[in-house]
Amino acid sequence: MTGITKNVQANVDFYMGFLGLHLIKQTGGYEDAEQLHLFYGDVHGAPGSVVSFLVWEDGAPGRVGEGQAGEIAFAVPLDSIGEWLTRALDVRVPVEQPTREFGETVLRLKDPDGIIVKLVGTDLGREPLQTGQVAPTRLRAVTLFSGDPAATAEFAEKFGYRMSATEGQIQRMVSDTDAIDIRDTRGFFSGIPGTGVLDHVAFRAPDAAAVREMRGSLARAHEPTNVHDRKYFLSLYARDPAGLLFEYATDAPGFAVDEPAGHLGETLLIPDHDTARAADLRAMLPQFAQPGEPRMPKRSLPFVHRFRHPEDPDGSVMLLLHGTGGNEADLMPLAARLNPRATLLGVRGRATEEHVTRFFRRFDVETFDQEDIRAEARAFEAFLHAAVQGYGLDTEAVTVLGYSNGANFAASVMALHPGLIRRAILLRAIPVLIELPQVDLSSAQVLLLTGRDDPLSSEAPRLAQWLQDSGAGVESEVVEAGHEISPADLNAARAWLTR
């Protein structure tokens, strides 16, 4: 099974810390390497034990409904349900009273994203996935929400399942090792992709030839994808007539192809086709602590934010404000190059128009919502004060790095809340406030970097002059670039930080 989580730390704490699974692989996604992909299972990553999650950190929630997998079930020892119920209550995992389904005792839980996880008391003859007498032994079943259960059942037969029993609106199909429960959801609302949903279910293929044969058999009716090389397995995807996404994947070469057995999941790996930007991706992908490792607290603050902690921190902090359409991780590669030892704090803008993220609204390319700028600046002031206190930051060690919309926002914050930002590197900044107030910025140091060929640069000198008139120490430089960030920006910013 593959799901989508919005909180990598909570996901790790649940599947490793609470359920007791092994982390067997952490990698950049093979479709999108800027997306962290975590795999859990037994210590070997054996087929039938693996559940994985794509990380959309603080991403929009989806909706579980027709055309999606709705529940995932793990087999646990027969006599362990009572202990699992007690454990769930002790650590406040949402849990229901045990029930009986298809002759088995079932305990329903919810993971931190709200995904339903069932623990099924049954003896499937497997060793626990983790050390401990009550740990899960393998995947037991998945529940599929289908608006056409007969068609879904016929489709599942292609993957080795046969009809077994019916209870109410649920038909159970079984293989030699596990089960599919197909729930009749005709009349339900449709599922929506996003965090907190199970994206697809993967079935075991004996080898690459079987995958290609399956593609041929599905080609006309179900429009399968091409065969994908995911390094650890070959696979293809296809949707059944009810819209459910099925994957068919090989065992080989397995999860030990790039890490030694016994040390799976210890290293963040980057897909081979993205090795040229491996350093940038490692800077962007969210970090997490495994159970028992030290970690920072996560504070609830007005802006979505993310830290990146270097291996050898020097005490400095770079606060990152992205450009239009960006997110809190966009500037982390640049910042990591500027100072590999700096702690990075990326912030996500809250103004969204046409699904584009900004720090404040605009009416057109040159007209900006003045009230929204002021409101968001007040919220940012509250955020920064709370971050300093909640995370124990040293305000003297904070440098703001802003690009485009983020740089414009930083300059506006300096105008509206003087003294809040004391050191800033502003790339492609222009003044967006109609009136720039008279303020005292004598404690501030600012580097302005303007692109020579930037079509929006005509107003940059006015911003530089206002900063100087306000008493700030300003260095302004024109670099060989347009509106995009260039290597010249890196060199100029690094030299300025050194000075």
UniProtKB/TrEMBL annotation:
Lineage top rank: taxon: Bacteria
Which Gene3D superfamilies does the protein's record reference?
Answer: 2,3-Dihydroxybiphenyl 1,2-Dioxygenase, domain 1, alpha/beta hydrolase
- Name the Pfam families for this protein: Abhydrolase_2, Glyoxalase
Task: Return the SUPFAM superfamilies for the record.
Answer: alpha/beta-Hydrolases, Glyoxalase/Bleomycin resistance protein/Dihydroxybiphenyl dioxygenase
Domain spans labelled VOC: 1-122, 138-251
The membrane spanning regions, by residue number, are none
Give the protein's recorded name: VOC family protein
